[in-house]
Amino acid sequence: MAFIVLESFMILVVVALSSWAWLAWYRRKELEHPRGRSVHWIYRYFIAGILSTFPTIPLGFVVDLLFFENPDGFLAMIFGAGLPDEGLKFIAFLLLSRKERLQKPFNAVARGTLVGLGFAAFESVVYGWNYGLGVEFHKVVHTRDPRHGWPES
Fold first, then answer.
1. In Å, what is the CA distance from 78 to each residue of 9, 27, 83, 108, 153?
2. What is the per-residue pLDDT for 151?
3. Rounded distance, CA 52 to CA 78, Å?
């Protein structure tokens, strides 16, 4: 029991530290900007990414149940995982950016990246609880989850 609690704590620490490092780096770059822009939007987009994970899990299950006999098939991965994940991240981005005047393409890229970072942070916690601490270290170092589109060897 103590090992399970320790492993869960370590998963949260690994995910939190890796996400915090990226957020801190981006925040520092934004504060160094000559116009002295506010950095509150960074956290809004990150949190929107975290919140966009919640509807993806039931949506993926519904798509799998309704349309696919083999939930491990190629089309099931596209329509049951890829499209709901990316679509909900895009919706989160659109909801936050609709009132902003994004004057340069990089501004949209940066905001979309922060939504993706929030999504990946929460997804990493879920993967860590399901598959163990080794997955977390692998994702932090390689930034690729071995179960995304790669056949098992």
1. 32, 33, 6, 25, 21
2. 45
3. 18
Query: For the CA atoms of the chain, what is the radius of gyration?
Result: 17
Only one residue has tokens 């909900």, namely 88
**Please, how many CA atoms are within 13 Å of residue 50, restricted to the half-sphere of its CB?**
12
In the predicted structure, residue 13 carries a pLDDT above the cut 90: no
Q: What angle do CA 145, 116, 128 make, to 5 degrees?
A: 40
pLDDT, tens digit (0-9, with 9 covering 90-100), for 42-65: 889 999 999 998 888 788 777 767
Rounded CA separation 34/142 (Å): 33
